[in-house]
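Q: Here's a chain of 225 amino acids. Please give me its 3D structure as tokens.
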Amino acid sequence: MGLSSLNAYSGGLFSLIYSAGPVAKAVMLILLIFSVISWTIMFVKFRQYGRAEREGERFFHAAREADSFKKLITIYRDSPDNSFYRLILACYKEITKRQKENNPDIKPGTIPIIENALKITISEESTRLERRLSFLATTANASPFIGLFGTVWGIMDSFREIGVRGTTSLAVVAPGISEALIATAMGLAAAIPAVLAYNYFSGRLRRIISRMENASMYLLNIIEK
């Protein structure tokens, strides 16, 4: 922090950011990018999981009313961009394939094959729904350390300024320390929402996967009727 920047200091947040050195500004820019991407992921996941949960409710409502797999397909129609619809689709493909190979009746040996197809579909959907959640964990873990790096660098710069000016007056030290600490504050501001969101969405994802496993049991029971 030079003398010109010291004169520009007025104590406000934007003045602190404006008067910060290039390293501190680069750190704050990185943290800002982390924060923006994290909030975008939170918004996307909130909508994606909300839709999956609503589709789960709709599936179970249809499954309770259906007394056969054909009737379930008739009741539950949706776009392919739906985890529960993909379970039905996986069943339908296996049943159609086995019926073409053998006969219209579903043999006992077909059920384990359909069960494996459902497990594969659940695993694929779990991977798809979990995508980008890891970035929230990365932000939660890395942002405080990135902010701390900016703070350490800023404090080193403040000590250098004390050496240049030959005084330990608060008027010289305080602005530099404030600039340094803002990097840590930004790191925490990026990390805290990210860690809360990661835990929140991980819990919702576990519940959705559990619902899909229950849905696959419903499907097997309906097919075996």
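Q: Can you summarize the key feature?
A: The radius of gyration is 28 Å.
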